[in-house]
């Protein structure tokens, strides 16, 4: 079957795997961690890394490659799993080498400054969208007529008699007056199918 570490991609072993792990698997894990530590331990050479200002250094590119490959998640697993405590010092050394060139003050200020800047930009964008939406709502309110369009009023139709010799009261709009009949609003009488005309 083999170890989960020697497949094409590295994955975190499941909790029961440590009991079934063979000696060669343990050696492979240790070698991988030592290789990672040694790669991160290489000192930077500014003369060799002549790049543009703001360009990522070789160390930063190695860290990005570790992130893309998922190795950082594997390191977090090894650091937090109770069953993998034997690797704690290797993982601690790797993490300290990952943050080698940064001071804690810079890292803390970077996170807060970036978050505050992004928060300020988001707040300004939301306020601009809110003002635009309020302006559109006011413009629609001005264009809207004061009464709703379903109001038709009530009219007395002189010359047409309703029940009891009274004039007909029409509750629809005047544009519907042409289609007025005494049967308006009544359901048509249903004729059974066998009595319908062919």
TrEMBL record:
Residue ranges annotated as transmembrane are: none
Instruction: List keywords of the entry alphabetically.
Output: Cell cycle, Nucleus
Query: Per the database record, which ranges form the Timeless N-terminal domain?
Result: 16-156
Q: What is its main location?
A: nucleus
Q: Which GO terms describe its cellular component?
A: replication fork protection complex
Single biological process term from Gene Ontology:
DNA repair
Q: Where in the cell is it found?
A: Nucleus
**Protein name per Swiss-Prot or TrEMBL:** TIM protein
